[in-house]
Design brief:
Shape: globular
CATH architecture: Up-down Bundle
Helix content: over 70%
Number of domains: 1
Number of helices: 13
Order of helices and strands: HHHHHHEEHHHHHHH
Strand content: under 5%
Number of strands: 2
CATH class: Mainly Alpha
Strand order of the largest sheet: 1-2
CATH topology: A middle domain of Talin 1
Largest sheet: 2 strands, antiparallel
Length: about 325
């Protein structure tokens, strides 16, 4: 009965995040329109940021109140892998050929920065596991580097989009003539409040679930919690596809992975017992390098731009992503279980 209650709490967290995430994204889109800010900048950056709020809130709660750093790190890196796996569903749902042929090659820039940021994280995990980690107070030296790389990435992507593709977001964004700015802000705040509540609750539920099921926190944080906190990305991506905004959908996923690494740096700052990567399982490096390889596969797809699918409904790039996701899940289950 107790186990059933824990699963019920977990499902409720998932439902709340799944409902609040899309509302936050839609409200942010309306705010961008009503304030006259760049649709390109708001759509590309704000969408990715707000859909990654569960990772931020869950991570902060995990390292401060719940004291489960493994769940925080596993959530961030697991979400990166899960976000790339969402591209598989996107390709399946896209009926006008492979998404990599239809998508703009400008996504390669964000993907390249993703490889750099996530690769740096994986290397830092391995070094920390061998007690080779420089510190600034209780913060690892890798964290300010992560923050710096993130800021450089955002600035570079913004400059590229502004100079090369002014119409990238404007051509697909919806118009909200019947909603005022005040209403949009109110919806945004309500959605944020729900998201914060679910995010604070989630690591406690995941910790109880790992204890009840006999799973280690590495496995639970990377697979279960990551899947739940990635629900906003999934729902927003599918919604963008339905309105024909394929490029916005892909940019949201790649941008979310960039923000996830920023979240890890923030988690490190909030974790006062020392550099966070020195207090977690080195198995998390598997997720980091899985995300790096998967992002590399996406870059290949964007460059090769195949017009036909290897099978009837899915591109060979998506098949490769699926196999890599399964391999990552299997390795985590075997070595972190």
């Amino acid at each position: 009965m107790e186990l059933g209650l824990i699963w019920l709490e977990f499902a409720l967290c998932a439902a709340l995040i799944g409902l609040a995430g899309p509302e936050l994204s839609r409200s942010g889109d309306i705010i961008a329109e009503k304030t006259g800010l760049s649709q390109n900048w708001i759509g590309l950056i704000m969408l990715a940021t707000v859909t990654s709020l569960p990772e931020l809130i869950t991570g902060l709660s995990a390292v401060t109140v719940a004291d489960v750093p493994d769940i925080a790190v596993g959530d961030v890196l697991g979400s990166c892998v899960f976000n790339l796996a969402i591209l598989i569903v996107l390709d399946l749902m896209h009926r006008d050929g492979p998404i990599y042929f239809r998508a703009h090659q400008g996504h390669i820039l964000a993907a390249g920065f993703g490889i750099v940021l996530i690769g740096w994280t994986g290397m830092s995990i391995l070094l920390a596991g061998h007690s080779f980690a420089f510190e600034i107070g209780h913060v690892g030296l890798y964290s300010p580097i992560m923050i710096g790389l993130y800021l450089i990435a955002i600035r570079t992507v913004f400059s590229y989009e502004r100079n090369q593709r002014e119409e990238f977001v404007e051509e697909v964004v919806e118009q909200y003539g019947d909603i005022t700015l005040r209403q949009a802000v109110r919806r945004y705040l309500i959605g944020a409040a729900v998201l914060v509540a679910a995010g604070v609750w989630l690591p406690f539920v995941a910790s109880d679930l790992s204890e009840a099921m006999g799973w280690r926190q590495t496995f639970v944080g990377t697979l279960l919690v990551a899947a739940v906190t990635s629900l906003p990305e999934f729902v927003v991506t599918m919604a963008a596809l339905r309105i024909g905004a394929l490029n916005m959908a892909i940019a949201n996923l790649l941008g979310s992975n960039l923000f996830n690494i920023l979240v890890l740096a923030i988690d490190d700052i909030a974790y006062t017992k020392g550099p966070i990567l020195s207090h977690v399982s080195p198995v998390h490096a598997v997720s980091a390098f899985s995300a790096v390889v998967m992002t590399g596969v996406v870059v290949i797809g964007l460059l090769y731009r195949s017009k036909t699918r290897a099978f009837r409904y899915v591109d060979w790039i998506s098949i490769s992503l699926f196999l890599l996701y399964l391999l990552n899940s299997y390795v985590l289950y075997v070595f972190a279980h």
